[in-house]
Write a structure and sequence with these properties.
single chain, five-stranded mixed sheet, Immunoglobulin-like, 41 strands, mainly beta
């Protein structure tokens, strides 16, 4: 049985159709900064790490990890001496900033090009998981108010000295689950794949030990990966579906059929989808069973299902038919929307092979022939379309993306959201599981993964007005973030500019009157711009403070 296909259901109470934009504010922001004695540690890729995934991994790594305890904000980073430094900021004490060395990461060997960046995540107030970027993982226990970190477990948890970063950590029923991310080559050695390893650790008395390992692989760009709140599955958002390739607790069932052999072929015209599969032996028409609805199909031959799932787009089920052509059975589906090119027959299904229809290719070539013609065409007189009217955000959403939940027991995708028209904008800090921000028209809707009684959904819990539009216009963006209470959002460029968008800033004079409507307003949306004359390599947004990290300096902006 295929995954449950879900639709995004926005909550109207979080949508503001009357939002009239951000007003530029030149008001000065209270700022504190501290020059670092040792520079921030940054890993450098080697000559074999040349793919897009490697470029994204190294260039967009956030070197600043933050958390809030009892309304106090603390951020951490790793310096060149492999020390984890804690930044303590007390706004009541003349905005003083103090650095405290909480953990010296052991170095089994000198760092070299190709090592990953050091990464760590807090499990709770008592434990953290640290990766040295060289293949070792450390579980540290955090003791006392002075925050002394003691190593309680250290080991190479992956084979072949594999390097990784810590993607997520969860604790459930005295078991610690660590989600580790790395990049590996697939069957084609020139192609790189995303690899997620789930390591299970448990405590026997005072001794920690590894009790299980799972592995998932997938291509394309990975936007988001988190363990669900019950530690029964994993949430993944990316361009390609992921599949389990290893499970020490529950062996993966391997299909007896040759995995490289395609069970069917399919092609498309501007109006139809044609599916072909080969018959075997003698058969009767009753041996072929084709059932279709507006968006699903279920095909079987002699009781064996060879095609089942949710289609890429809608069809007219009453027009579905099949014919016998030689030893091939050809099924014809009629598209509900003509001239729309399907990227896949069933999203995520790799058991079929796509063939390009010569007639469709010739038609597309004819429509585009004017772009490479050697004859000059007369430009029509009058109002014509101008490329100056096209903005960056008009090209968003061209890439196929999905948000899926995969079950640790069945190894199958249980739920799926199609994110095609909703670009991933940011990740929102959550209590148990982080939320995501997706672009909907010009806004950014914030969605929280919810799992109750094995039923999964994405709940709309807030909106960043017009943030999808402004984010799409920033071509040099490197980091995006927002405060947990959604009071402001931020876009950091690689160098110099930091854009702050306050959702609801109170008016100091009490109220303003809209000249057009006469309506009094007590709050306005503001935009502020900060200039940082250095490369920004880390950001953390809390409700009260915005922390920025460069190679040599930590900045704190009072929000």
């Amino acid at each position: 049985m295929g995954p449950k296909i879900l639709d995004f259901k926005p909550n109207r109470q979080f949508i503001n159709p009357e939002f009239d934009g951000y007003k530029l504010s030149l008001q000065e922001i209270i700022t504190s900064k501290h020059e670092l004695e040792a520079k921030v540690h940054r890993a450098i890729p080697n000559s074999l790490q040349y793919g897009y995934l490697h470029a994204k991994l190294f260039s967009t790594h956030n070197h600043l990890i933050g958390r809030t305890i009892n309304d106090y904000d603390f951020v951490y980073f790793v310096d060149n001496d492999f020390k984890i430094q804690k930044v303590v900021y007390d706004p009541s004490a003349s905005n003083e900033i103090e650095l405290i060395n909480v953990f010296q990461i052991p170095k089994e060997r000198p760092s070299e090009n190709g090592d990953y960046n050091v990464s760590f995540k807090f499990v709770n107030d008592k434990f953290a998981v640290v990766s040295d970027g060289m293949g070792l993982i450390y579980i540290v226990e955090i003791n006392g108010d002075i925050e002394k970190w003691d190593v309680v477990f250290s080991e190479e948890v992956l084979i072949e000295d594999k390097k990784f970063i810590v993607q997520d950590v969860k604790m459930n029923e005295n078991k610690l689950y660590c989600l580790l991310y790395s990049i590996s080559t697939g069957d084609n050695k020139d192609r790189f794949l995303n690899v997620l390893n789930l390591i299970t650790l448990s405590k026997d008395g005072d001794v920690w030990g590894q009790t299980g390992i799972k592995e998932l692989r997938g291509g394309g760009s990975l936007h988001y990966a988190e363990i669900d709140s019950l530690c029964k599955g994993i949430y993944i958002a990316g361009e390609k579906s992921f599949k389990f390739t290893l499970d020490s607790d529950n062996p993966i069932k391997i299909d007896s059929k040759d995995s490289n052999k395609k069970s069917y072929l399919w092609l498309q015209t501007t109006e139809n989808i044609k599916i072909q599969f080969k018959t075997f032996g003698t058969f009767e028409s009753s041996d072929v069973v084709i059932n279709s609805t507006t968006n699903t199909i279920d095909c079987s031959f002699k009781g064996n299902t060879f095609l089942q799932g949710t289609l890429f787009d809608n069809i007219n089920p009453s027009s579905t038919n099949w014919v016998l052509s030689g030893d091939l059975i050809e099924i014809t589906l009629v598209k509900a929307i003509n001239n729309q090119v399907w990227q896949e027959l069933i999203p995520g299904d790799e058991s079929g092979e796509y063939l390009t229809d010569p007639a469709l290719a010739a038609e597309v070539h004819e429509k585009l022939s004017h772009l490479c013609s050697d004859k000059e065409e007369n430009v029509p007189v009058g109002n014509t379309f101008s490329s100056e009217h096209v903005e960056e955000c008009d090209f968003e959403g061209d890439t196929y993306c999905v948000f899926e939940r995969l079950c640790f027991t069945s190894h199958l995708v249980t739920h799926r959201y199609n994110m095609d028209s909703h670009k991933m904008v940011l990740i929102v800090k959550g209590n148990d599981v982080n939320g995501i921000g997706l672009r909907h028209d010009v806004d950014t809707y914030l969605w929280q993964p919810i799992l109750e009684n094995d039923e999964f959904s994405l709940k709309h819990f807030g909106t960043l007005n017009a943030f999808g539009y402004v984010e799409a216009s920033k071509q040099q963006k490197k980091f995006t973030a927002c405060a947990p209470d959604l009071s402001y959002s931020v876009i950091c460029e690689s160098n110099r500019h930091v854009f702050i968008y306050r959702q609801k800033k109170s008016v100091e004079s009490g109220s303003l009157r809209n000249r057009m409507t006469g309506r009094q307003v007590g709050f306005i949306a503001q935009q502020q711009v900060i200039n940082i004359f250095d490369e920004i390599i880390g950001v953390f947004a809390s409700n009260c403070n915005l922390f920025l990290l460069t190679n040599n300096t930590i900045f704190i902006f009072r929000m």
